[in-house]
Amino acid sequence: MLPFDLETELEQRRAAGLYRTRRVLEGAQTVEAVVDGKPCITFCSNDYLGLANHPQVAAAMKAGIDRYGVGGGASHLVNGHSAAHHELEEALAEFVGRPRAVLFSTGYMANLGAVGALMRKGDVIFEDRLNHASLLDAGLLAKAEFARYPHADVENLSRRLESSEDRRQLIVTDGVFSMDGDLAPLPRLCRLAKDRQAWVMVDDAHGIGVLGARGAGTLEHFNLGTEEVPVLVGTLGKALGTAGAFVAGSEALAETLIQHARTYIYTTAMPPAVAVATLQSLRLVIEEPWRRDKLRGLIERFRRSASEMDLELMPSDTPIQPLMVGAADRAVRLSEALWARGLLITAIRPPTVPKETARLRITFSAAHTEQHVDRLLAALDELREEWRDG
Ligand SMILES: *Cc1c(COP(=O)(O)O)cnc(C)c1O
Known about the structure:
The protein has helices at residues 6-15, 55-68, 76-80, 83-95, 107-118, 133-141, 154-162, 186-196, 218-222, 251-260, 262-265, 272-287, 290-308, 328-340, 370-382, 384-389, and strands at 32-35, 38-42, 100-104, 124-128, 145-149, 169-174, 199-203, 231-235, 245-249, 320-326, 343-344, 347-348, 358-363. By secondary structure, the chain is an alpha/beta fold. Helix 9 (218-222) links the parallel strand 7 (199-203) and strand 8 (231-235). The chain is globular, with a radius of gyration of 21 Å.
């Protein structure tokens, strides 16, 4: 018999510098926050537009509670599909320029549900190796064959598609890679898919609200529609500042999800008040493009100074600006040194990222000021020695 020994396993994890702990946030998700009792500036949330604590969005959620109460109460297919959910689905579909959108309670479930509903035994799923864990899990759980291609390597993918030509093929990728901040090579992926009659599914958790003139995301940025990318996943807990997710595409795709997506069918609908709040934040995303402009300005300011300081930036124009460190324990030490200076940036370590690519995942928000960015740069400058020498 093999006994359970959680304590020893946890100790080994701690020794490897991989132990994860949680800090306690004492108020709303804002860039100036109190964390573990200490006031600090945060550079690690996904609240890219500063909407998670926007007064109009919060007021909408309260009004939603007055009308709909607190809980969803049932799944969408029983009687949990409220007028608020329905209206949000229609607004999201229009926003991303697609016939339909279907709401899910989280992005994780949207990904599991969409891949599971589309792919059968005998089909093949191809995923970028750096895809979000929820997409990789979707591939692992599916009854179809699952293959990973090297990050953004269209040639490699092309060869693999060729060798499984007679089967249904789904190419799945993040739009913006969540730990690197770069964009998927979507125009090339879509051309490849078209030649092979494969489908492309894009998870745009970090592009929605941020990229494109209207904030409709990575596909708007590249000017790609339903024809090129039949399956679009967007999440609501990042730039939109609320919670939940949607899958958008054709009429037939939406109906297929409603029939077959297990994470849609067998779970309680998100609280309707969250849908009401999201309708309001969607309005702000569309009507107030200044947040995207401001965010772009902050990102440029950071990149300009960081490259003058010779910090190792990654090729990203998005609010995700990781600083590559390498060793996990060193990333943790740097994160702690920043914390001592009142700056919260979490160290991202394996297995979230590949071995020896531990990093500080810096993210920017339209709620940051230039002064916040300059404080971060000054702290990074002070820690210069630690970057270099370990
Ligand atoms: C955050 C994230 C998800 C999960 O979304 P949740 O709504 O938080 O479950 C899915 N995909 C990507 C790329 C993400 O970054």
